[in-house]
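Look at one such:
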Amino acid sequence: MVFYIDHPLGYVIILALILLATKLCGLLFRKLHLPEVLGFIIAGIIIGPAIFGQFCGFTLIGFEDAVNAGTYKALFALEGATGENETVSVFSKIGVILIMFSAGLETNLKDIKNTGLASVLIACVGVIVPMGLGIAISLPFGDIGLGIDNIYRCVFIGTILTATSVAITVSVLKELGKINTKLGTTIVSAAVIDDVIGIVALSIVTSIARSGNVVADNGFDAFKSTIYGTIIMIIAFFVVAAVAGLGVNRLFRWLEKKWPHTHRLPIFSLVVCFIYSWVAEEIFGVADITGSFMAGIVLATVHRSSEYVDSKINVDTYTIFAPIFFANIGISNIDFSGVGGTIFVFALLAVLMGLIGKIIGCGAVAKGFGYSWRESLIGGVGMMARGEVALIVTQTVTNTENLGEHALGGEFMIMTVLLILISSILTPILLKVLYSKELPLKNVPATAMATAGGSDATATPAEPSPAPAEGGIGDKNRD
C-alpha cells in the first residue's frame, strides 16, 4: 500500500515521522557527544530513499515519480519529482532562514570589537587557507565534475571548507575553565567573524556563478546577470542593509521602551528577517540566508530585545523548522548512487584539507600575535570544528534551481557529513590533550599573568557572547 501525499492533511504524518526520527537520532548523537544536526541528517537518510530505497527497494518516505517508475516502494510518496517537493522545501527554507537569523542575533559586535585585530585576522586567514586548499585539491578531479573546466564547483568546494562551528570548542573551554581567557575569547570571536566572512564569500561566489544563468526579462535583470553588475549589487545590498539597519535599530529601541518583552517584538523581528531575506535574493541577487543573517546582526545591536527575541524564536526554529531542514537534506539532497570510490577518496582528502587549513592558517596568525606554539595550536584546533553553516553552504551550492549546471551534485554532501563528524570527534580530544600539557603555574602573580601578551591567563573579565547557532542545537532544544 502506498499513501500519496498530495494534500495538506497528508503532510501531518510526514511531519510526525520527521520530528520523531530527528528527535530520537538527535538524542542518540547527543549521548555520543556529537552534534545533534548529524543525528537529524542521519534520521532523514534512514526514513528517506537514500539507503533503504536504493539498496533495499523500500523506504518510509519517497517521491511519487520514483515510486510510479518502479525505482522503489514507499509507504508515503511525496508529490513531485525525485528530491523535489514544494511543501517540504518551504518548511526547509524557513528553517535555514531562521537558523541564520538566530546566528546573527547571537553575534555580539562589541565582543568582536574588544578582541581586536587578532580575532579578525585569525578569522580571515581561517577562511582563505581552507578555501584555497579546497580549490587546489579539486582541480585534478575533473572526472567527478570538478577540475579547471568546472572552476565554479571547485570554488564551491573551497567555500564549504571555510565555515567554523565553535559550539563544541566553547563547551570544552568551559569544561576546562578556559572560556574567559584571552585565548578563549579570541577563539570565540574569531569563529563568529569567520561565519560572517564565510556567508559573505558564499553570497559572492554563488551570485557570480548564477549571473550567467539568469534569464533577463528587463534591463535591470540583464544588468544583474553580468559579473560587474553582480559585484555592484552585492556591495549595494550591504550598504542598503546597513543604512536600513539604522532605522530598524531606532524602531526597536522605541518598541523596547514602550512594550518590553511582549510578543510584538518577536513578530516584528520575523517581519524584518523575512523582508531582508526576500530583498537580498529577489532584488540584489544575494543569498537569502545572507539577508536573514544581516537582519539578525542588525537586531543584535538592540541587546535586550535580541536576547528576548532569540529565546522566543528558537522555540519554533529548533522544535519544528530546523529539524525539518536538516532531515530534508538526508531525504532529498543525499544521493549515494553517485558515491563511488573516487568521490569517497576526494571527500576524505577534502576533510583533511579542511582540518589542516584551519590549524595552519589560524595557528600561524595566533603565533604572529605572540601566543606560544601550544597556544597557537589550540587556536587552530579550536577553529577546526564544523556544524550547521557548513551544511547550509553545501545545501545552497547543490541547488540546481539557482545555480544550474554550476551546482554540485548531491553526492558531495557526503564530504560535508564526514567533515562535521570527524572534526566533531577530533576537536574536543585534541583540545583536552593540548591543555593537559599546560605547565603548572607556581608563584606567578595573577596580575602579571593577566597582562602577558600571549598568556592563556584570564584577561577578559566578561564572558564572551555565545557562539552562533551552528552546532548549538543541543543547547537550545532541551528535553
Q: What stands out?
A: The radius of gyration is 22 Å. The chain has a mean pLDDT of 80. Residues 227-258 form the longest helix (32 residues).
